[in-house]
């Protein structure tokens, strides 16, 4: 598959905020949990800076915001219960155009994987509930790498599993931390807008930017 000057042989997707519209649910769950446990709601500033980070990095950031003694693991555990209850009641919302993009890439015989900061247990459950897990050859999850996003390890690991050079892989992200991970892995970094409007740093790191997955799929059709 052609994409500008690149020859694409695989596509590696972030999950939360890219495939699944779960970031808003996670914000709500974390704010409710933090309010219940420490009588203080996590700020939007803190949560926005957490986008794309794995659990350990988010905990370190929470300690910077709220002090070294913050009961982060207790808050995180309760938030996961709240979020899962919402998911089980209402399902997992897909981002606009995701299913169409997955079907298109599958029809073009482009193998796909997920590189997510979420733990494997959560990632597998959510992709199954969303009924899109069968599109992906494998997952690389935040609890399986030594260094989470924005470090490039997770995307480099996915490329190694595909036995492909990063320059031949789409790395599709929505967050600044995730985009830096893709950029530093030397992949073809695609930015899809989610909660956070892209700043100039993000646009500079991206090989291309799209308002939605629907727009990304339309671009692929035009180029191929």
TrEMBL record:
<dbReference type="Pfam" id="PF13419">
    <property type="entry name" value="HAD_2"/>
</dbReference>
<dbReference type="InterPro" id="IPR023198">
    <property type="entry name" value="PGP-like_dom2"/>
</dbReference>
<protein>
    <recommendedName>
        <fullName>HAD hydrolase, family IA</fullName>
    </recommendedName>
</protein>
<dbReference type="InterPro" id="IPR041492">
    <property type="entry name" value="HAD_2"/>
</dbReference>
<dbReference type="InterPro" id="IPR036412">
    <property type="entry name" value="HAD-like_sf"/>
</dbReference>
<dbReference type="InterPro" id="IPR023214">
    <property type="entry name" value="HAD_sf"/>
</dbReference>
<dbReference type="InterPro" id="IPR006439">
    <property type="entry name" value="HAD-SF_hydro_IA"/>
</dbReference>
